[in-house]
Predict the structure of Class I SAM-dependent methyltransferase.
Amino acid sequence: MDRRRISALAHADHPIAAPLSDTSVAHLLDRALRDGAVQDGAERDRDVRILDLGCGEAAWLVRALEGRPGVRAHGVDLDAGTIAGARDEIAARGLGDRVTLHAQDASEFVADEPFDLVLCVGATHAFGGLLPTLEAARRHLAPGGTALIGDAFWEREPDQGTLDAGFAADDYADLGATVDRIVADGWTPVYGHISTTEEWDEYEWSWTGSLSRWSLDHPDDPDSGEALKAAAEHRSGWLHGYRRTLGFVTLVLRRTPDHLR
């Protein structure tokens, strides 16, 4: 079964493809957009431009645009089917004139203008890791702009159960080392959120449950058995492996001026 189809089905009930609640997403966007002066009634001489690298179903962009008429956005994702579905959802919400979606490799995306906010939450694998993701954000960011980056870290040293779930010990660092790498790369965190155990559990139960439900509801589909197996394997890897070991941090970042580094 195609990995991208599995992901699309698994995120049906949790379109934010990261362990973040709706409240946390809203709070992070408020903080990230603060520097863009995106506030009700604020005077601005142009629309604020947002880019989501690895946008998936464009759930972050929908949340960023609703209630903020002075925002325009671009989203990039490799999965053409997901992009097509996202276009339909955005049009149904009446946001189609303010969002442009691109079905292509996010690492190869080139824009005509820079962006005030660049997001990449839960999609750093598209660039080969955290630091290459930061480099991509830097390329697209307007002077004084903000990046919103979310990635995993080790809450504790990964044990054998975590490694058996498909991780390698050097996949991530602990939280302190992760933030230190970001700062050393020339960024200053101005806000951050560490996903709670409750957010993780909601995300994982939604992921495995949505995929399992689809399989049970479509027993005659050729992919049904493989989907149910994938959900069971994922659930086992989480419960017997990386639960309370793998963490997730989402950071609001700005570039550090050279003379302050």
Notes: Residues 33 and 205 are 30 Å apart (CA to CA). The two ends are 48 Å apart (CA to CA). Confidence is low (pLDDT under 50) at residues 36-44.
